[in-house]
Each structure stands twice: as C-alpha cells, then as structure tokens.
Amino acid sequence: MIALRASMLLRENGIPAWISAPDIMPPFETGVFVGGESFVRPAREILAATTAESLTPETGWESTAAPDIRRLDASLAPDCPGCGRALPMDPGLTQCPACGTPANVTERLLERHGPEVFVSLYPDDSDDAPEAALANCHVVCQCTYPLDGLGTTGRCPECGAPFDKRVVLGWAKRSL
Ligand SMILES: [Zn+2]
Ligand SMILES: [Zn+2]
C-alpha cells in the first residue's frame, strides 16, 4: 500500500493523517501517521476496507526499466501554460513547440497529477528519482511541517526529524 495515497484517503474521510519515513514513529507499517490515539481505530477501519489495488497505480508498476516520462500514458500529457495544447512527453523540452512559452514537462506533470504520477516509472529500490521532482513533491514531516523545496534527504527545519522523500513516497524501501 502506498502511504501517500493512504494518507490522502484518510484526510478525505476527515482523519488528520500524514506520511513520514516508516522508521521514525510508525503507528502503521505503511508509514502513515494519524493525529492522535482516537483516530487510530477509525483509520485502521478505513484502510482495511480499502483494497490494496485501489491504492496502487494500475500500469507500469512491475516495470523496472529506467525512469522515462516518455513511457507515461499520453493521456497524462500536461497542457502548455501559454496556449493550452498538450505538451509532448519529452524530458528535455524547455519550451512549447507550438507557441514557444517556457515549459518543463516534468514540472507540469507534477503540478497536474502530483508525485504519484512518477511512481510507476521507478522500481521499488530505485535511487534514481530525479532530485528536481523530489524537491517539488508535496511531502510533510511527522510534525506536519511542509518539506517542499528541500532536498531528497535531510532534517525537518521545524522539529529536526530526519526524512528521506524517496522513502516517504514509496520510491525506496531503504530506511534512513
Ligand atoms: Zn504553447
Ligand atoms: Zn518536523
């Protein structure tokens, strides 16, 4: 089960939940934290009622080839911020081929679909997640401090807890 999706599901159900590296303080083996003892039981019930399939990307999960956004489904192609046309899935693209507006396909994909869109491109134990994509991922510390814009690994500026965004996002199982 992907902790990020699980925590989103819990928040949709009104339970304060967030994710962090599984070895910091895990009430759940998935690395999902909930906001207090009274939420643990309802959170477990919600997650138990949710099939693992519905939390797992359907395509490409078993693939272990090198990450490449050209392998993403064409229907995910983000639109150009200038003219609105679909951008080609080209990781090297710097501007829209139609109107010339500066555009980074990887960043636009993140904005539109969130970091989960890249999960299918990485094998479980990959260390190759792009630094830029990780820096822009919306990941929060166990103290709820947002880690956006910070490096792949480090310590939370607010509470000092160590984090590894690859672990938080389920891209790597390695502990800190
Ligand atoms: Zn354009
Ligand atoms: Zn913190």
Tally of separate helices: 6
* Oligomeric state of the chains in view: single chain
Counted up, domains total 2
Decide which structural class fits the backbone.
alpha+beta
How are the strands of the largest sheet arranged?
1-2
The pLDDT mean sits at 72
Instruction: Compute the CA-based radius of gyration.
Output: 17 Å
Unreliable stretches covering 5 or more consecutive residues: 21-30, 57-66
Strand content of the residues, in percent? Answer: 5-15%
What does the overall shape look like?
elongated
Total DSSP E strands: 4
Biggest sheet overview: 2 strands, antiparallel
Through-space gap between termini: 20 Å
Helix % is 25-40%
Small-molecule binders here are: zinc ion
Order of helices and strands: HEEHHHHEEH
Structure write-up:
The protein is an alpha+beta fold and 176 residues long. It has two domains: 1-65 and 122-176, no CATH class; 68-115, no CATH class. It is built from six helices and four strands. It has helices at residues 3-12, 37-48, 52-55, 105-113, 131-136, 165-168; strands at residues 17-19, 32-34, 153-155, 162-164. A two-stranded antiparallel ribbon has the order 1-2. A hairpin with a 6-residue loop joins strand 3 and strand 4 (162-164). The longest helix is centred in the first third of the chain and has 12 residues, at 37-48. Mean pLDDT is 72; it is low at 21-30 and 57-66. Residues 80, 82-83, 85, 96, 98-99, 101 line the site of one zinc ion.
